[in-house]
Write a structure and sequence with these properties.
8-stranded antiparallel sheet, alpha+beta, single chain, 8 strands
């Protein structure tokens, strides 16, 4: 028997485990983190969050409404954290340090193999600079690679 649980309830349980110090593997839905995380195929390994840094992929409660696994784009002096999915061409979310549930350290593919997330790598920095043309790159990627 399969039981369906609302995302917010499931992630609240995940948050409790992470708060206790456990590493948790969470399947990712959606395409907002393409090309680094493929929703529906891959999962992320989450650890208790240290202080957020630009480039970190985190699970956070955003805008007081829902959870997302997105990348930290900027942190202001007053502590406002701006997030954006790698596969998004526009749109930002905002949270604070206390809203962060966990930090993603690995992507786990369908084959069970772990690979590190590019947090401050040259690949991610290049991808971030390509934001104005992401729409076309992602369109080709979705048609060819997915």
């Amino acid at each position: 028997m399969i039981k369906t649980v609302p995302n917010n309830d499931a992630i609240a349980a995940v948050a409790a485990l992470i708060k206790e110090g456990h590493h948790v593997v969470l399947p990712v839905k959606g395409n907002s983190m393409l090309p680094f995380i493929i929703g529906g195929r891959e999962s992320v390994e989450l650890i208790p969050p240290p202080r957020a840094q630009v480039g970190d992929v985190i699970l956070a409660w955003v805008d007081g409404t829902h959870y997302v696994v997105h990348r930290v784009i900027s942190i202001t002096a007053d502590g406002d954290i701006t997030l954006m999915g790698d596969g998004n061409i526009r749109g930002f979310e905002h949270c604070r340090q206390e809203d962060i549930v966990g930090k993603a350290i690995h992507v786990i593919g369908a084959d069970g193999k772990k690979r590190p997330l590019p947090n401050d790598s040259s690949r991610w920095r290049l991808w971030n600079r390509l934001r104005p043309v992401r729409r076309w790159i992602l369109g080709v990627y979705r048609r060819v690679c997915l």
